[in-house]
Amino acid sequence: MKNKMLKKEEKEISDKNLEKILFYDTIMYVLALLFKECQKNQGGLSC
To answer: How many helices (H) and strands (E) does the chain have?
Structure first.
């Protein structure tokens, strides 16, 4: 019985970590897109 509880907790922890990773990936992706757009529009150095 105790094992099942531990497994559930581990799963919840790894789900939270996954959400965090996805969240950071999304932010990095958006920032990269914005930076590319900015470079295209401004010719590079102004952003």
So the answer is: 1, 0
